[in-house]
Amino acid sequence: MAPSADRRHRRRGSLGFTLLEIMVTVALVGVTIGFVLTIREQISNHAFRATRMMEAMRLGELLLADWAMNPDTLDDFSGTFEDYDPDAGDAFHWNMTVEEFDLSTGRAVEEDDEYDGSEAFLPPDAATVEEDPADDPYTVRRIKLTIYYPRPDADEPAEMVLERYMPMVRDPDVSLGLGG
User: Fold this and answer.
1) Three-state secondary-structure class, residue 101
2) Model-level pTM?
């Protein structure tokens, strides 16, 4: 009688887990794994985007440095970086615009611009502006380089804009007053 009495007096929980406890545990593990996978995917996308952004910055800096060595060749144009295969989905495209930019006003100089300069950033005692933009010390060339690079989460590429300001090309026959 003792063995059958022991079996009757045992608690039900000591025999194992109930089906409800196992289902709750599996549900909690599933939700946790879902969150972990979502976070992992976001981290992977951010890493991919950061890598592409840094590569776009590096390629843009190389282009700008190349053009800075020979500023007479600057013109508006665009292209694709040859190191990347457009069919593989990792094409880096670029577009460059060059325009005259007036530092005293903070505006692009346009041919039909009738801006009188009344809102100039320069102090009132600043030198007057000559008519020829090449002789104007406040007129520079603004080089705007837009680089388009692939994104993992969209079909359309992301873009990065780099701007540089270069002095206007002066006539090489005119002496710069550097002695000699």
Assistant:
1) strand
2) 0.59
